[in-house]
Every structure is written in structure tokens, then in C-alpha cells.
Amino acid sequence: MTTTDHSQMMKQWQFTKSGSPRDVLTMVEVPIPTTCADDEVLVQISHVSLNSAFAHRLIAYYGVFDPVGAFMGRPGVPEKDFSGIICDLRGANVTEFNIGDRVFGIGPTSFREIAQGVLCEYALVKRDHIVKVPDNISLKDAACFPITGFTAYCFLVEKAKLKKGDKVFINGGSGAVGVMAVQLARTIVGPTGLVVATCSPMKNDIVRNLGADEIIDYTSHVLPDFLREHYGSRPFDVIFDTVGSDHALYSNSPNYLTPSGSTVWLVTKRILQLLSAMVVPVYLGGVPRRHIFESLTPTSSRMVAMAKLVEEGSMKAVIDSTYKFTDVLDAYDRMMSRKVTGKVVIEVNDLDR
Known about the structure:
The protein is α/β, with parallel strands linked by helices. The protein has 2 domains: 6-144 and 317-347, Medium-chain alcohol dehydrogenases, catalytic domain (Quinone Oxidoreductase, Chain A, domain 1), CATH 3.90.180; 148-292, Rossmann fold, CATH 3.40.50. Helix content is 28%, strand content 25%. Helix 5 (146-159) crosses helix 11. The longest helix is centred in the middle third of the chain and has 14 residues, at 146-159. Residues 20-346 form the Enoyl reductase (ER) domain. This is Enoyl reductase (ER) domain-containing protein. One of its GO terms (molecular function) is oxidoreductase activity.
């Protein structure tokens, strides 16, 4: 008879087929990793924050067929955003982190590793995907930043090159990335700049307190028409679309975006329209405004830059709700309700206690 040494085992949530999170996720017990690549470390997970895009990929339906969701490996572990503490398993090339360091970061992101998530008690992660948690930030708060803060930083600072005095429009100001983008934009453009964001009326106060000067109720207006009427005479320098549901926001952007301005698409549900925007030149009817849509690769320098902004208070965690590790299915129900502001956080093992 073979017995299992449970001291070397861990719990994780996993899926073996597509479907809604409540229907396909189960908690299982698996061995804790005992080997790692030269550029990896083993992290004991403290907290994980949920990502709505992953839940949609579990369902494998994005309004169009989602090839990434459909071809994720099985069995798979969901989620990518985590915080935790480095264990005694480190690769030979990992010299910048020590055992016991508090870190936060992003799980594997390559296409072949897309199903290797972090909703588990221990996870192997690449050194370029993690950064030390600032001393003034809790592990719970730190789990809210990896993808959302990283995305806001890369697109607004690196790609769109937002600067002091600029005017920026953020579509989806109360979403997980939106709350980071509003805060970061406020810091960058300063008192002479303008931050405009969309949200539902019930979230106005939250988004305004994060730094938005003006708020648009997206439920009451056709955005391209409203923007043309109210901002045509004071056009934006950057449009950051975290929703991606309406290509008209970009196709009509010459009415409210400066000629040198940029539209950043975080997601899109209109693949053919996206391809058209990317390849059709202006003289053939393309939109005469710069568009930015690309995959972001975590690097040590980017993670350090994002962590510095977090330490300085340019981005603060916005937590909608917190759930125990055993209540993950309830957490996904909450996130899929579309009533969430900020992040839904899972307490795997609160290692700050």
C-alpha cells in the first residue's frame, strides 16, 4: 500500500474543461514543486487577485471565438496576479532575491504556459516576473497590482508617453485596470492636466476620489457622440480604452483626439475591426490617428518601475472584496456579476500575519 506524505502536498484550484468557473473549477491536492529552472523561484502564495479576462477564457467566449481560451492546456490552474514569500527553492541564475523576501508578480505568460496559473499554495515563477513588495505595502494590497498596475504603467508611460499637462480619457474607469490608470494618469498629468473617465453612476464618487476630474455615465450616452460634442474643442492627447467593446470610439477619434494623440486598446471584442485599424493606411480610408494594441512582456526593469510607483503612492490598491481560498467559487460569482470596483482578492495564506 502506497501512502502520501501530505506535508509535501499543496492545494490548488484547477480545471479540465471550458465552462463557467463555478462549473469547471475544483480544488485538488498535488505535490509541491521540488525542482525549478535556472531562472525560477518557488513562492509560497499569500494572496491572489482575480482577472475577469481569465474567467471569460474559461468560458472560451468573448463575443467571438477565443482561441487562447479554447487551446489552454488541461488540466490548468487559473490566475496570474499574486503576492507571497520566496521559499528555499531557487534557480542557479537567481541572485537578486533571497529566501523570505516578500514579492509580488505575474505568473507564466507565454502561450504554452497560459494555463499554468497561481491559484494555489505554492507556485514556480520566473525571476523577471516578480519584484520585492515595498515595505509600506501589505501582501494583500500587493496582489492587486501585478497585471493591472503593470498594464497601466506600460501603456500610459512607455507606449502613450503621457506627460504633465496632457488630457486623457479612460474608458472603464472603475474596472481593475481603469482604477490604476485613473490614479497614474492623475499623478502624471498633474493639476494642469485633465483626467476624464467613464463609469456607472453608482461608482462616480469612487472614480472621482481616485483622481478623475470629469466623469461620463456610459449608460446614458453614445460615447463617440458625447465626446465629439463636449471635447471636440479641447481634444484629448491620449485615449485609454480598457473596455474594448466599441470600435467607433477609435474610428471617430479624430473628432476628439489631437492629431498627434494615441488611442490605447487594452482589449477588443472586434477582431476584424482591430486588424483593419492596424493595417489600413489613411489614404485608403484608415483612421488618421495612432493606435496602440500589443502584448506586454514582463521584465525586471518594468516590474521595478511599477513597484516604485506603488511605493510612492501613485497607484493604490482598490479592493472590491476578499474571499478565503476555500470560497473561490463565490469570488468568481462576485467578479462575473459586473458590479465589481477594483479587484476581488483571494486570501490563500495571509503571510503578513
